[in-house]
User: Fold this.
Amino acid sequence: MNMKTSVAIEKAVPVADPDIARTEFRNAMARMAAAVNIVTTNGPAGIAGFAATAVCSVTDNPPTLLVCLNRGASVHPAVMQNGVLCVNVLSEAHQDLSRLFGGKTPVAERFAGASWSELSTGAPVLEDALVSFDCRIVRQADGGTHDILLCEVDAIRQRDEGQGLIYFDRTYHSAGRAE
Ligand SMILES: NC(=O)c1ccc[n+]([C@@H]2O[C@H](COP(=O)([O-])OP(=O)(O)OC[C@H]3O[C@@H](n4cnc5c(N)ncnc54)[C@H](O)[C@@H]3O)[C@@H](O)[C@H]2O)c1
Ligand SMILES: Cc1cc2c(cc1C)N(C[C@H](O)[C@H](O)[C@H](O)COP(=O)(O)O)c1[nH]c(=O)[nH]c(=O)c1N2
Assistant:
């Protein structure tokens, strides 16, 4: 087999410059395909939402998701103070919406880009999401630049049709079936 590979960071060779390690890590992470979600919140601290790929399943008993949220993000105070969030899993039709929620855009403009409802917690539920997990944040851990949020699922809404939206190599792809 003829595969082009490179070894950027080896355990035996500590990378002295943290900026280089950071860049190498990001370049490597760009090769890890990930589902794209819009994580929303609402409550006393107001409405907010951001695009997120750092989301995964933790346990099914009780149903729990993990979400990593950058402490420097504009949405951070609202998510932490409200204590609730909804993970809306995007379809291939949601590329523009993901860009809207991917930073810098004022919150009202983000939510004007789609239709929303609610389930149990009051966090915005994207009308045409593939799946929406409505959650309460039950624990958090220190992830350095990020807070790691453990989120118990209160309600789930899902639809059967549609393909997922994947982020890979810093571009969007459809999660169509592999033959
Ligand atoms: N987990 C995250 O916080 C995360 C994930 C994806 C994208 N982003 C942000 O979106 C923008 C565009 O990202 P991009 O993928 O086009 O290029 P990029 O080079 O900034 O990131 C490449 C990959 O590295 C990881 N990554 C990026 N920033 C990170 C961070 N601060 N902490 C942990 N992992 C991180 C993600 O998996 C990302 O897809 C950047 O501002 C990036 O910070 C953040
Ligand atoms: C595809 C993709 C995926 C992610 C992000 C971006 C994009 C484009 N962002 C960044 C996040 O959506 C937002 O841009 C930053 O939090 C900065 O937003 P503000 O401009 O501060 O609102 C992001 N941030 C985060 O804290 N956790 C995550 O998992 C992700 N994932």
Notes: The first strand starts at residue 34 and ends at 35. The pocket of nicotinamide-adenine-dinucleotide (ligand 1) is lined by residues 26, 29-30, 53-54, 68, 70, 102, 145, 170 (CB under 6 Å).
